[in-house]
Amino acid sequence: MKSFIALLSGIAVWGSAHAELLASQGATGILSVQYEYSSIGKRTDKDEPGEWRVQRTIKLIVPMTADGPQPLSSLRAMDSTQSADLAKKQAQIKDFHTKTAPMAADMMKIAEKCGDSEACVEKAVAEYGSKMNLAEVGSLKADATALGKQAGPRYQLWQPVSQKGTYLVDETYRAQTSDPLCTSKPNHRCRREETRKGGGDIPAPTGMKMTSAALLEVDSMKQDVLIRLPIPLSALGYSRQITSDFPDEKSGTSSGTLPSMFGQQKSITAAIPGDLRPASGTQSFKVDGAEGQGGTLVVKWQFALQ
Asked: How far apart are CA 67 and CA 158, in angstroms?
């Protein structure tokens, strides 16, 4: 069948695409992400006033490796132009297969007739080629070239190898209440203050095969990068100290954990002005919530090839 392959190779010439933003398969890089969450505010209710100051920082480092460049995205939906191009290409491929089906059938007959004899196959294919219509061959070459021009790689997905990180929690909440049980207190109010402090290395998750939830995809045509941001895969704990004379609340120390980021993983898209040596950016997000759970999240990221 070598002669058959050679014959088809002479008809179909496939192009290859190259872009500076596309690395070789197996290339390595480092994605660094820092979350800075802050919330400062007051509750102005005359009977239940309060204030808070919240600062949380999470730093994650994710070594990544590159998949091979692909013509279609793994993370993004196709736009209307891509959908139309794909439908057109599928129709062209179907038409090309229909046109070459008789030739493929004839090659199979030659293979069955000649068996393992390469000499027989080469002679039969040469005779077959000499009888082919040159106009038909030219048409097939043109069809193959047209298909090849539409198949250049455009996207590249980077996948995580591992993940490590650190975090810091520094929060203060103050509140007052004019509950009737507080009439004996100064200004007829009870007061409470809560501080939350914690930090250190993010512990490795237990019983989980996932190394990281991060993904990164380069679009070499639009010259941008889509990053599905990494998140901590384990609970981030802190120590809580409460000083209170609120009714039914005791002062003391306890432990707590930050709200999980599972289900709230964010994705960002950013332009890449040159290449990936390195690419970086900053984006801010408003986070809804009462008191310290509502604030501003600033994400700083950098991706660099190794």
From this structure: 6
Confidence band of 197 (pLDDT split at 50, 70, 90): very high
**Mean pLDDT across the stretch 70-92?**
72
- SS3 for the chain, per residue? CHHHHHHHHHHCCCCCCCCCCCCCCCCEEEEEEEEEEEEEEEECCCCCCEEEEEEEEEEEEEEEEECCCECCCCCCCCCHHHHHHHHHHHHHHHHHHHHHHHHHHHHHHHHHHHCCCHHHHHHHHHHHHHCCCHHHHHHHHHHHHHHHHCCCCCEEEEEECCCEEEEEEEEEEEEEECCHHHCCCHHHCEEEEEEEEEEEECCCCCCCCCCCCCEEEEECCCCEEEEECCCCCCCCEEEEEEEECCCCCCCEEEEEECCCCCCCCCEEEEECCCCCCCEEEEEEEEECCCHHHCEEEEEEEEEEEC
- The share of the chain scoring above pLDDT 70, in percent, equals 85
Q: What phi, psi does 286 have (nearest 5°)? A: -85, 135
Q: How far from 115 is each of 106, 125, 207, CA to CA, in Å?
A: 14, 13, 56
Query: In terms of pTM, does the model score above 0.90?
Result: no
Q: What is the C-alpha to C-alpha distance for residues 56 and 292, in angstroms, rounded to an integer?
A: 11
Q: pLDDT tens digit string along 168-189?
A: 999 999 999 999 999 999 999 9
Per-residue CA distances from 76 to 97, 114, 268, 271 (Å): 30, 50, 12, 15
User: In this model, does residue 161 exceed pLDDT 70?
Assistant: yes
According to DSSP, the residues that pair with 301 across neighbouring strands are 33, 281
